[in-house]
Amino acid sequence: MQGKNLLLVISGSIAAYKSLLLIRLLRQSGATVHAVLTAGGARFVTREALAGLTGQRVHDDLWAAEAEIGHIRLARLPDAVVVAPASADLLAKMAHGLADDLASTILLATRAPILVAPAMNPAMWQHPATQANMALLRARGVAVVGPGEGAMAEPESGPGRLAEAEEMHAAIAALLAPAGPLTGRHALVTSGPTHEPIDPVRYIANRSSGKQGHAIAAALAALGARVTLVSGPVTQPTPKGVMLRPVETARDMLAACEAALPADVFVAAAAVADWRVASEATQKLKKTPGAAAPTLTMALNPDILATLSKHTQRPRLVVGFAAETETVVQHALDKRQRKGCDWIVANDVSGDVMGGDLNTIHLISAEGVEDWPRLPKQDVAARLAARIAKEFS
Ligand code: CTP
Question: Measured from the CB, is residue 320 less than 6 Å from ligand 1?
């Protein structure tokens, strides 16, 4: 962690003493730690202890911070933000975007990866509100360590105990993943289906689960790339350290991809709807007794892969997917020509690929066709990411 800047937010919990141990471990590994203390946190640890251990000014007042350095600069400064202990209240604020003190304002403003280490009473941890907040945070890519089970300050046991300092240290090290072959590269990945509205309550979609696209985003991030994942509606968790741009329609997906440029590599793994309903009804379509069923007139959606392949800011490597049920390789060769991409990852979807865990791939590039064995989608992702890294080496 040599040379890394960490912002450690300490909120109210009796377990806050473990964060003092964490500061020592982090400094021993070469990191600089800036502490932000919430009003609750200040009930359990003192500014003086934090200033002494970090060797830095402690920030605890939004308006004082504003005058000195500005909360936005404080939010931009760190390589990672660690919230330990993270109280139920602060997690709820984070989940809902509240910004009423220095800590919550920084957490809303930062673009650095965030790790939270929850600590609270087991009933508070298990409450559906806290669990829903955690699900929201996880889906947005917030990393979580703990909580553990075991003896707590109160005569109660169950999950809610703050992770140990060593565990938090390891989780921070993972978050700041070591430089890989794609460090410094920006990868743009599309994933999932698109939803094309018919009226405010109905839409046209497809069976894409986003498993393959999300796995590719994770694999590229694991090799050090900065990854922007533009995904249609899926239930997959957002991979750690990946910047998610959630979208619904093909047109939204194209706009989000263009907004994310420049990128070094673009992987179009989304199952984009080829057509949308030409004129989306602004009110719910009603059944009129005796009247015929409505006819939907479709309009062609933009082709995101083809658009980015001939974009003025074309990524150096553009990778498309081809989902085929017959003459897989021939269709994929044609698709590569038609869409203007560099590689096509052709997958045979004649079986149970959509939503399943396995994929049979043929990788088509200017050099020819590579046949891969039937592999789990995670392995396909790792192999593709390694091939991409080789291209950039
Ligand atoms: N794609 C895209 N935008 C679209 C349609 C497809 O970016 N509007 C991308 C997909 O993400 C995938 C590739 O194009 O990388 C191939 O999509 P696919 O639907 O398999 O091929 P099509 O060109 O639609 O051809 P067909 O449906 O006739 O097989």
Answer: yes
CA–CA separation, 35 and 56 (whole Å): 8
Domain 5-176 class, CATH top level? alpha beta
Q: How many CB atoms lie within 10 A of CB 152?
A: 21
What topology is assigned to 186-392 in CATH?
A: Rossmann fold (3.40.50)
Tens digit of pLDDT for each residue in 312-359? Answer: 999 999 999 998 888 999 999 999 999 999 999 998 887 666 667 888
Q: How far apart are CA 15 and CA 41, in angstroms?
A: 10
Centre of ligand 1 to C-alpha 241, Å, is: 27
Place of tokens 């009933």: 123
| Size of the chain, expressed as the number of residues it contains | 393
Residues 6+ apart with CB under 8 A from 321: 212, 268, 269, 344, 345, 346, 347
Catalytic residue among 5, 206, 301, 347: 206
Residues in contact with 284: Cβ distance below 8 Å, sequence separation at least 6, in sequence order: 199, 200, 201, 202
Q: Is the CB of 323 under 6 A from ligand 1?
A: yes
In angstroms, the CA 62 to CA 24 distance is 26
Q: At what angle do helices 17-28 and 47-54 cross, to 10 degrees?
A: 10
Tens digit of each residue's pLDDT (9 = 90 or more) over 187-222: 999 999 999 999 999 999 999 999 999 999 999 999
**Cβ density class 11-27: b for 16+ within 10 Å, e for less:** bbbebbebbbebbebbb
Cβ–Cβ < 8 Å for 185, 166: no
Instruction: Name the segment(s) of the chain with CATH classification 3.40.50.10300.
Output: 186-392
User: Looking at the chain, which residues constitute the CATH 3.40.50.1950 domain(s)?
Assistant: 5-176
347 an active-site residue? no
- Ligand 1 near 125 CB (within 6 A): no
Q: Position 371: which residue type? A: D
273 lines ligand 1 (CB under 6 A): no
Tell me the C-alpha distance between 126 and 128, whole Å.
6
